[in-house]
Amino acid sequence: MFEKEIINILINFHNDSFTIIDKKENVIYWSDRAAKIFGMPKDYVLGKKITDIFSEDKLIMIKSLRENKVIQRQQHRATENVYVDIKSIPIYIDGKVEGAIVSEVDVTEKIKREEQIEMLKNKVSSLSNSVQQLNDSEFKNIIYRSPVMERVKNQIEMAAKTNANILITGETGVGKELFAQAVHSSSKAKGDLVPINCGAIPHHLFESELFGYEKGAFTGANRAGNRGKIESAENGTLFLDEIGEMPIDMQVKFLRVLQERQYFKLGGNKEMNTNFRLISATNKKISDLLSSEEFRSDLLYRVNVVNIHIPPLRERPEDIEALFYYYLYNISEKYGMSVRYANKQLINELKAYRWPGNVRELMNVIERLVIFSNEETLNNEVFYQYLNEVGEKNTVPKNLFNDEAIALRDYVEKVEADYIKYILEDNNNNIEQSSEVLGISRPTLYAKVKKFGL
Q1: CB 3.0-4.6 Å disulfide test: which of 36, 141, 176, 212 passes with 281?
Q2: 104, 84 in Cβ contact below 8 A?
Q3: The CATH number of 147-313 is which of 3.40.50.300, 3.30.200.20, 1.10.260.40, 2.40.240.10?
Q4: Which positions fall inside the Sigma-54 factor interaction domain (predicted)?
């Protein structure tokens, strides 16, 4: 009895898991660490066939027993949150195989450290690229890694050398004004970049906002008159954001400005000359503008001499990680918080989401993550809650994919876990009913619930 207790203490002395099966594949020893890792007590496991507890394709000790050989595997995922190095050895007695023993060394912390190091490498790389781009003052705040955005940058550099009118197209939230600023900076214009949002100005005020007005032009007007956006953009760049929303009556007047380079202030009788670079932007398709009765095609031909299209974020997932770390740093600094660690799962799920709101939506999500994450790592659940708010499901199953190819058996196991979870929820977590639907015994279902952490 004393010797048996000494052996039990020695086996459980280290933070390793041990399982022993006999030649009939029944569990005859289940260490304390094994019980903790898999969440199954000894009295539940002992005496059962090991294949009734775990899926046979995951049991290397079965192969070790049946094929009479030592088997070793590194970085095997024992449970959802535990990684182990695993080794199985057949047990010989009088030259016959009478069972097998498997040891599992917990390497979870090692794996986490490796992930953190890899994350930090990626973060340093992303931030280095961001800093390099920010040092290029002509492309300030435009963060990218994708080849398609490199082509956009080249287009901007080429177009900026001319004085041609430019129309920037792209979905809401891609940052069209940033690209207009890049064109303006690259052009080395002497004047300022003067923006005007055509969709934000009331129709009755649009003419005075664009052309300016003389003193006494209308009731309530500034007594000294007012410079318009065109005058403010002299020798610089006039940026008309959402030009598709420009009132139809103003389109005629602005077309004349582009043709004649002359205009009258509101209430004035002196014709003024002007010299500015025009950049326009719209989230509408060119074909939609051409077919619209609310936008003049002759004006479109004037403003769309050079078209620069900014692709949506979903078409350039390579940029998401760089943008994420750039804004994570800025937003953390804004709130006086330290930059928290983002695990691979979160990064991969961010990359997989379609981002209908583009960069603006990404910034919104990052801000939430910064505000509501209390630990040293960002709280992934904050992003899952956001997906639920916008009616999206998790785009990548938890821990399913990482930077390395996933084994087919791991994928199958994940699908199995998701299906069992669905059946349990559909049957209000009733084990008996769920086991009948799944066609397995209650002990097997209980074991799988423990195994998958459901």
Answers
A1: 176
A2: yes
A3: 3.40.50.300
A4: 142-371
First to last CA, the chain: 38
Task: Report the CATH number of the 108-136+324-404 domain.
Answer: 1.10.8.60
Q: List where CATH 3.40.50.300 sits in the chain.
A: 147-313
Q: Which helix (H) or strand (E) holds 213?
A: strand 212-213
Element (H, E) at 93: strand 83-93
Fold observed for domain 408-452: Arc Repressor Mutant, subunit A (1.10.10)
| Prediction pTM value | 0.62
Would you call 103 helix, strand, or coil by DSSP?
strand
CATH 1.10.8.60 in the chain is located at 108-136+324-404
**Per-residue pLDDT in tens (0 to 9) along the chain, 454 residues:** 555 555 566 555 566 778 898 988 898 888 888 887 777 888 888 888 888 888 777 787 888 888 888 887 766 666 666 777 788 888 888 888 888 888 877 777 777 767 666 666 666 555 556 555 555 556 667 888 889 999 999 999 999 999 999 999 999 999 999 999 999 998 888 999 999 999 999 998 899 999 998 876 665 556 667 889 999 999 999 999 999 999 999 999 999 999 999 999 988 888 999 999 999 999 999 999 999 999 999 999 999 999 999 999 999 998 998 899 888 888 988 999 888 878 888 888 999 899 999 999 999 999 999 999 887 788 999 999 999 999 886 554 444 444 444 455 565 677 778 778 878 877 777 777 787 777 777 777 877 888 777 7
Locate CATH 1.10.10 in the chain: 408-452
Angstrom distance (rounded) from CA 378 to CA 373: 5
C-alpha–C-alpha distance, residues 451 and 39, integer Å: 8
The CB-side HSE value for 31 (13 A sphere, CA atoms) comes to 22
288's tokens: 């939609």
CATH topology for the 2-106 domain: Beta-Lactamase (3.30.450)
Sequence-separated (6 or more) residues with CB below 8 Å from residue 348: 396, 401, 402
